[in-house]
Structure formats: structure tokens, C-alpha cells
Design a protein that fits this description.
By secondary structure, the chain is mainly beta. It is built from 13 helices and 54 strands. The protein has a 22-stranded antiparallel beta barrel. Strands 3-6-7-4-5 form a five-stranded mixed beta sheet. Strands 37-38-43-42 form a four-stranded mixed beta sheet. It is globular.
């Protein structure tokens, strides 16, 4: 094992010396010395002359972030081509405990690989077991700009900056009052939101100090899919009845047809049962029998233009959300060269997720006996006549328990964060920044309408006690307060029965972060013939802790049985960075600068981790500049990836060994051979996977760090013949080896049987099949799953000019995604899945922003472009060229507009419209999935902002 204690002790000692000893040091510079203004940019600790970054940096101003009807700045950032919509408000409720989160995901390679900083410092996570920062915790009113760096940042900030850094730069000294109120409403639904901000700051002691505080409030309503005309329909993919053996691979005859007015007929809110004639029997509201009309287009338990059930009623395409954000900061010049600062924040955010109710889909527990006291005579008569007159003693009811209450989850997060530090100049010309950061997030997750399965079973078995009273059959259950329930017909359960059956389960999490760091930087250490050498070095100690406690009453309920996670790690780090001018004022070389950085970390979990970066910055002339970076890093697994306890989950999957699925493939030989090796008989077919299948998710104490390599090559062109015009083009590539990841359940099933080397792979070991060959359990632990590769080209064109008696600012930002590969097998590097061009990974994405101002009037027009994407990877289509009639989401263009006026008395008024032309969702999505959240599901949305500044 590595020696952790010596390095940790040494760093702590160095930090104390830096933060305390240097606080008393002030070496005044010669008053006659020339002051050269230097600027620190994200991606480097060295302050440099001018604001041109040594690495590719996308900068978004605070004003641009607020130029939207969204209630938080994360929604605005997610519109950038470089960021994936992994966690936006629209899709944040997909998992337990995540409702209301807005987490950034650079290059769509995972939120754990994007490092979010505030003023260059780490921020406590908002999600247990991870280091993911919720952008709702950042005060939007104080954001001066956001700087986004792709790759090459791990050596400067830490190894978890694999795909890059998003750095929120807050305003330094706040002076005066700033107050805004915003109200927005939708043109197509009752959805609305609101936001209010208040900021006040003031200098004191003749300008030596500044103190400020800010309060923000924002909220939005939930929006159900049925309450919006774009999402209220019921769609299903049904087997193509026109397909046969001769055309089964013909793209004109897809396997399935994406069909409107279609869905399950075998389940509904009233209850569905079979009497030997299929699941075509249901209940009226009074409990009497009614036939289900299945129509002419039937596929298993699905049908079209029939009595199908619309599952959209359980989809909230926007969650209810509310946030309070209180911030305070103060700084004071303790000497002419040193400034002490302190920051404090409190954030309370509440996100609500309303999902499906408890349901029974072939579960034997939901069985009605023939002597049930609630049984309608019409149903009892059919039961007696069923089975050619022999009768049946019971019926199994497939039912959505909507009238017992939809399952609702309320997530309340309270985040506190404190920063204390000292920055300034020491030893004449060294920039010091020493700080202590302490943050805590407390999460309370309340799950309502949680069915107690034993109580439900007792309540369902209702009989007549002989005196005309309906009671629970079990006397023991009666003694414990059992209340019988009637489920035959929607609305039949009584309030008393609902209260007996349901409970509320509450889980809690606590996440804490402690960071102590100090750095020294000198942009002009000494002069070489080509210019000044810059240097920075520093130390950092960080501890991350996370603990989750699950409710005691969750066992035996419809809610997932979740494990209790608890873990922590600490890391001690040292880093250094240099900037060396190599050449200057030579033919074809105006300046040539070498940048290098290295960071050594000692983790309590994985031991040593070293990250490094090399960069070359070549200024050809006043117009043209080239830049190149190469870096490597080792990312340590986070707490959840190591210590995550096994937790029950449920997956919606298709069994790849089913005969229908195998017959759809153009070349199924590998799968058929592997399915046979698993013991699945030929011709195996079953509708069992129409319901969700049980899974088990967990961390992995044996998981190791993942290695990453990043490369960027780019140019900056500022033509002299076009004033105020800038063009940047940057190629980037990120490669991961031993990537830390959990895999989707469907991928586990597919990769198990797609391996050319047979079933002795890590995926097949995660699957359990029962004696009937049906999958009974899918285990999904964190793994080092071979590798990932992503590369692309970023374009940015800015041009500012005067026209029409005012000023224009234009900006075009675009990304072309060259590749986005995942390698499922360590020993088969030629076998990969290409995601570039599929949902959420469009090959072309771009934003165009045009701003115009004339005196106090201003306006902006912003257009976002997403190229057509496929719903299937190339590998999917090579196996099956015609899986569905719906295979793409079409090209998507959406435009937002604002107009505002600032009056001379400090009053401001702004009117904005998001989705100005009411661009509809692509056909086939509700805009609330992992990739589909890139598309607006609200529609034309207008808002008005009143502001006052003084």
C-alpha cells in the first residue's frame, strides 16, 4: 500500500503555513514599479497578460444566462452544444431521489466527469454518493460569467475534471440595490413559473471592504402529459401485420409500426381479468362486468383504435419545483496587498416527482376469490360459467391502483456552504489564494402512497361475516385494524381502506465536503529572451463524506428496498504549473509558449493518482494563433461507486433470447448460439417482459480508477480587416480506459449474448434466469467497462459592430460530434457501439445569438439547432435494419426572443418569448427522457421581468 499519512501530514502543515503564516506577510512593491494587469482564466492558475485563454474556453455572461424564461441557470446552460441534458428539470424525476436536480454533463460522458467550480473552488455535491453539483445552488443574480473548458483541466483542478470544467465566476464587489421579479406563462397549457431576486451590496471603511447579500426565489408548476396537446396521446409500437419471411429485412416493412391511439388493453384503472378468453374483461364503476374492445390491430397485450390504456396520465413532463437561495459575502483589505474574504450560503430546494401508482400485472397476489363480498353478481355468474361450465374459484386482476393514489416523491435539499480565505500579493509579486471550504447538503426524500403489501393482501381478501358486514377474512388482520378494500371498478376503494393500505416512507441523506487549499502564482517569475516565465504551485486537502439512511417501514412495501450507503474518502494533492515562453518576434512566430502542469494525488481509496498536461500556444501574428494541449488523468471512483449498498430496482427491457426478437435480426447466429448456451430453449417466447423485471444495483469496492487522455488542437483568428470579429475552431478528443460505469439493463442483456467469445463474460454473470428460462434478476454493479472515446470540433464566431444607430453583438457556437464510442469488452477493442448521431448525441448542434442595443433599448434573438438523430445505433441497425417505423427524431430548430428597456430612474422592463414560433416536439417523444430533454416540451412561453437598480 502507498504511504498516505506522510503526504497528508505534510500538506496539512503546508496549508497551515500558507493560510496563517503568510497572512502576516506583506512585502510592499516599489511604488514606482509599473503595474501590469493580469487576468486569471479557467484552465490555469497563472495570471496572464490579456484575457486570451491558453486552452479552449467558452464564456457565457451572467446577463445571457438570465435571458430566458427558465427558472434556473442550469436550464440555460444545457442549451449549449457542449452540454448534455442528462439532468434537466424536465427529466430529473427519472430516478429515486433526483427530482429537481439540474446537473451538468460536459460532452455527455457522465456527470461524474464534469467538475463544477464556483470562483475556481469546489462546491459540495447535491446528490448522495457523488460529486455532482446542483446548479440551483448557485446565485444567478451574482454570476458575472461562466467559463467552460473542455479537457486538459485535471492537472490544474483535480482528476475528476475528465471532460472539463464549468467554472461559475461571481461578481467581486457588489454595490447598490438590484431587484427583479419575473412571471412566465405557457401559451398551450396552465404551466407557469416565477422568479424573484434581491441583491444589495455596499463598500465600507473607505472602500477597503465590501459586504453584500442576495436572496432568490424561484418556482414552477408541474405539468402532466395529458394537460398538453403535444403529449396527451397514447402511442405504442405494434407488430407489423404486413411483414412476412420474404420482406422481414425490407426497410419498407419495419418489424413494428409506431401507432397512435394504441396501448395496453390488458391493464387499466378499473381492473382487467381473464376467464379463459384472454384479458378482455373489465369492471364498470359499479363493479359490474364489461367487455374490452380490442379492435382489429392486436399485438399480444397491445391494441390500436381500441379500449387501450393511456399511460401518459402518469407522466409529469415538468416537475413541481421551488427554491430559496440566500447568499452573503464580505471581503476586506487587511493590508494594501492582502484581502480576506468570507462567503456563506443557504439553499432550500424542493422537487416533486409524481409517478405511476402501485400496479399489478400478472402478480398472483392480486387475486379475487369467488366468495369475495364485493364481487358483483354479473362477474360471479361469469366465473361460475367459465371453463366450459366447470367454473373458476378466483380471478387474477391486472390493475393500476390509481384510486389508491399515485406514488409521489418530495425531495427537500438544504445546502449550506462556507468559504473563508486570503488572497493577494506576497513576496512582492506572488499571487496568494489560501482558503477553507466547508459544505453540507441534507436531503429528505418523502415517498407517499406507498402500498404495504401485507395490508393490501389482507384487505383484498374481503368476505361477509354472516351478519351483512364486509370484513377482512383474516381474524388476525382484523385484530390489527384491517379495513377491507374493493378494487372492482375505478374509484371503488374507500378512504378508510386507502389509509390502511398506504404509508409514507422517509429517507435521508447527508453529504459533507471539506477542502483546504493554498496556491501561489507568479506570472512574471523571471524573464527569458522570449518573455516572462510564469509559475504556480499549491497544495490541497479534501474530504468527501456521504451517508444515506432508508426508512424502516419500506420493507414489505411497493417501494424499492434500498440499501443504506455510507462512505468517505480523503485526498491530499500537490500541483504545479509553468508557462515558458520559447520564442518571440521571429518570422512566423510572434510568440511561442509552452504550458505544463502536473498534479499528484494520494487517495485513501485507490492510492496514488497523477495527472499531467502539456500545452503549446503559438501566436503566428496579430491575427492568427494556434493552441494545443495533451493531458492524462486518473479519476478515482466516488463514494457511491465504491460503497453503494445493494438496492432493489426494476427495469423495462426486452429479452434478447425471445424468439420474436431473434427473428427480427438480420444475422442472429451469435445470439442464438449464446442463448442456447445459457439454456434458453429454441422457440422460447413469453410476454413476461411486458412488465418490469427486478434488478439489484450496487457499488463495487473492487472498482479501480479510470484513466483518461485528452487532446485539443485549435486556432483563434481575429482578422484585422474585420474589426471586433473572432473565429475559434478547436478539435477535441477524450479517451477513457477502464471507464467506471453502470450499464443499462438492456445493454447488459444484449452484451451477454452478443459476445463473439461466448457467454463467459462479465455481463452474463449479472443475469439470473429461472427454470422457465425467464429472467428473474438483473444485477447491475459499478464496473470498469473497458473504454469510451469521444471527439469533435467546436466552432465559435463572434462579431460586434455598429449599425441602425445602435450596437450589434453576434455569436455563433457550434459543435460537430465526430465519434462517441463505447467499448463493451476489454479483450475485443474492435467491437464498439457508436453513439454519435443518436438521441442526445446529435452530430451537429449550434446556437446563434444576436443582440441589439440602442441607448436604453435592447433586444436579443437566440436560435438553437439540433440535427436529426437516430433512435438506434449503427450496430443496432446492422443487426436489424428495420426495427420500427419510427427510427429518427427530425432536425429541430427553436428560437427565443427578448425585448427590454432600462429607464433612467433605474426601473427596467423586459418581455421575452421562449419558443417564439411554437416549434413542436419531434414525433415520438414527450421531451422528458435522458436524451430527448434537449427538446422543449412546454411550447411558446412568454414572460415579463420587472427590475429596479440603484
Amino acid at each position: 500500500m502507498k504511504s498516505y499519512n506522510q503526504l497528508s501530514s505534510g500538506i496539512k502543515t503546508a496549508l497551515c503555513l500558507s493560510a496563517i503564516g503568510l497572512a502576516h506577510t506583506s512585502i510592499a512593491a516599489d511604488a514606482e514599479d509599473t503595474k501590469i494587469e493580469r487576468v486569471e482564466v479557467t484552465g490555469s492558475k497563472i495570471s496572464r497578460v490579456g484575457a486570451i485563454a491558453p486552452a479552449p474556453v467558452t464564456v457565457i455572461t451572467g446577463e445571457q444566462l438570465l435571458n430566458t424564461g427558465a427558472v434556473n441557470i442550469g436550464e440555460a446552460l444545457n442549451k449549449l452544444p457542449a452540454l448534455g441534458n442528462t439532468y434537466s428539470l424536465a427529466n430529473s424525476g427519472r430516478f429515486i431521489g433526483t427530482a429537481g436536480l439540474n446537473i451538468l454533463d460536459l460532452r455527455n460522458m457522465g456527470t461524474d466527469r464534469t467538475l463544477v467550480l464556483v470562483n475556481g473552488k469546489r462546491h459540495v455535491s447535491s446528490s448522495a454518493g457523488s460529486q455532482s453539483v446542483d446548479t440551483n445552488t448557485i446565485p444567478s443574480v451574482w454570476v458575472e460569467r461562466v467559463e467552460i473548458v473542455t479537457g486538459g483541466a485535471s492537472a490544474v483542478y483535480g482528476a475528476d475534471a475528465v471532460t472539463g470544467v464549468v467554472n461559475f465566476i461571481l461578481k467581486d464587489n457588489i454595490e447598490g440595490l438590484d431587484f427583479t421579479v419575473t412571471k412566465g406563462v405557457s401559451d398551450l397549457s396552465d404551466y407557469n413559473n416565477e422568479k424573484a431576486t434581491f441583491s444589495y451590496g455596499k463598500n465600507f471603511d473607505d472602500g477597503r471592504g465590501n459586504a453584500a447579500f442576495a436572496v432568490e426565489y424561484s418556482a414552477q408548476d408541474s405539468l402532466n402529459a395529458l394537460d398538453h396537446p403535444w403529449t396527451d396521446g397514447s402511442y405504442s409500437s405494434l407488430r407489423n401485420q404486413a411483414q412476412n419471411d420474404s420482406n422481414k429485412d425490407d426497410p419498407n416493412f419495419p418489424d413494428k409500426i409506431y401507432t397512435p391511439n394504441a396501448g395496453y388493453y390488458a391493464i387499466n384503472n378499473a381492473g382487467v381479468f381473464s376467464l379463459g378468453n384472454g384479458y378482455v374483461n373489465t369492471f364498470n364503476a359499479d363493479g359490474s362486468h364489461r367487455d374490452i374492445y380490442t379492435g382489429d390491430n392486436v399485438d399480444g397485450l397491445l391494441c390500436a383504435d381500441c379500449d387501450s390504456f393511456n399511460l401518459a396520465q402518469f407522466d409529469e413532463i415538468q416537475p413541481k419545483f421551488e427554491r430559496y437561495n440566500v447568499n452573503f459575502k464580505v471581503n476586506y483589505d487587511v493590508t494594501d496587498d492582502l484581502n480576506a474574504y468570507f462567503e456563506a450560503k443557504y439553499v432550500n430546494s424542493e422537487g416533486e416527482s409524481i409517478g405511476q401508482p402501485a400496479f399489478f400485472f400478472g402478480d398472483p397476489r392480486n387475486t379475487i376469490q369467488i366468495d369475495n363480498a364485493y364481487l358483483d353478481p354479473s362477474v360471479k355468474k361469469l366465473m361460475e360459467e367459465a371453463n366450459d361450465g366447470e367454473g373458476v374459484e378466483s380471478i387474477n386482476v391486472l390493475r393500476m391502483m390509481t384510486d389508491l393514489g399515485r406514488r409521489i416523491e418530495n425531495n427537500t435539499r438544504e445546502t449550506t456552504r462556507f468559504v473563508a480565505g486570503l488572497k493577494g500579493t506576497v513576496f512582492s509579486d506572488w499571487d496568494l489564494d489560501a482558503s477553507i471550504v466547508r459544505g453540507k447538503t441534507e436531503l429528505e426524500r418523502v415517498n407517499g402512497a406507498n402500498m404495504i403489501l401485507e395490508n393490501y393482501s389482507n384487505a383484498l381478501d374481503a368476505v361477509d361475516d354472516g351478519n351483512g358486514n364486509i370484513v377482512c377474512r383474516s381474524e388476525a388482520a382484523q385484530a390489527e385494524g384491517c379495513v377491507p378494500v374493493n378494487i372492482m371498478g375505478f374509484g371503488a376503494p374507500s378512504d378508510e381502506a386507502i389509509n390502511y393500505i398506504n404509508t409514507v416512507s422517509t429517507g435521508t441523506s447527508e453529504i459533507t465536503q471539506t477542502v483546504v487549499s493554498a496556491s501561489l502564482a507568479n506570472g512574471g517569475l523571471f524573464e527569458l529572451p522570449a518573455g516572462y516565465v510564469g509559475m504556480a504551485f499549491g497544495v490541497e486537502y479534501r474530504k468527501e463524506e456521504s451517508e444515506t439512511k432508508e426508512p424502516n417501514n419500506a420493507e414489505g412495501t411497493f417501494f424499492n428496498a434500498l440499501g443504506e450507503d455510507k462512505g468517505d474518502f480523503d485526498v491530499s494533492e500537490i500541483f504545479t504549473e509553468v508557462s515558458i515562453p520559447l520564442l518571440s518576434d521571429m518570422p512566423f512566430v510572434q510568440d511561442l509558449v509552452l504550458d505544463a502542469a502536473v498534479r499528484y494525488a494520494d487517495y485513501s481509496t485507490i492510492g496514488d493518482a497523477t495527472s499531467w498536461k502539456l500545452g503549446l500556444d503559438w501566436t503566428l501574428n496579430d491575427e492568427l494563433r494556434f493552441r494545443l494541449t495533451q493531458s492524462e488523468a486518473l479519476r478515482a471512483p466516488n463514494i457511491g461507486e465504491i460503497f453503494g449498498a445493494p438496492s432493489q430496482t426494476f427495469y423495462s427491457v426486452d429479452d434478447p433470447c425471445q424468439a420474436d426478437n431473434l427473428n427480427d435480426l438480420q444475422n442472429s447466429s451469435t445470439r442464438r448460439a449464446n442463448c442456447a448456451a445459457l439454456g434458453v430453449p429454441e422457440g422460447f417466447d413469453s410476454d413476461y417482459d411486458s412488465q418490469t423485471l427486478e434488478g439489484l444495483q450496487s457499488g463495487n469496492r473492487d472498482v479501480k480508477g479510470e484513466e483518461s487522455t485528452s487532446t485539443t488542437i485549435g486556432l483563434v483568428y481575429q482578422p484585422e480587416f474585420i474589426e471586433n470579429a473572432t473565429l475559434t475552431i478547436d478539435y477535441w478528443k477524450i479517451e477513457l480506459e477502464d471507464a467506471i460505469s453502470t450499464i443499462s439493463a438492456q445493454d447488459i442483456l444484449d452484451r451477454c449474448v452478443d459476445s463473439g467469445s461466448g457467454i463467459s463474460n462479465q455481463y452474463c454473470s449479472l443475469i439470473t434466469r429461472d427454470a422457465n428460462s425467464e429472467i428473474s434478476l438483473i444485477q447491475n454493479s459499478v464496473l470498469n467497462v473497458s473504454g469510451q472515446e469521444a471527439s469533435g470540433v467546436d466552432f465559435e464566431l463572434g462579431y460586434d459592430f455598429d449599425a441602425l444607430e445602435g450596437s450589434f453583438k453576434t455569436r455563433f457556437i457550434g459543435t460537430y460530434l465526430i465519434e462517441r464510442k463505447e467499448f463493451p469488452f476489454q479483450d475485443e477493442p474492435s467491437d464498439y457501439i457508436e453513439y454519435a448521431g443518436v438521441t442526445g448525441e446529435a452530430q451537429w448542434q449550434a446556437n446563434l445569438n444576436i443582440e441589439y442595443s440602442y441607448e436604453n433599448l435592447y433586444t436579443s434573438l437566440s436560435t438553437r439547432y439540433i440535427e436529426e438523430v437516430s433512435l438506434y445505433t449503427d450496430q443496432d441497425l446492422s443487426d436489424n435494419p428495420n426495427p420500427n417505423s419510427l427510427t429518427t427524431f427530425g432536425t429541430y430548430i427553436i428560437t427565443d426572443m427578448t425585448v427590454g428597456y432600462n429607464f433612467d430612474n433605474g426601473v427596467g422592463l423586459k418581455v421575452g418569448v421562449d419558443n417564439l414560433f411554437n416549434r413542436e416536439l419531434p414525433y415520438g417523444t414527450r421531451g422528458d427522457g435522458s436524451g430527448s430533454a434537449s427538446y422543449d416540451n412546454i411550447g411558446r412561453f412568454g414572460y415579463i421581468t420587472f427590475s429596479y437598480k440603484m
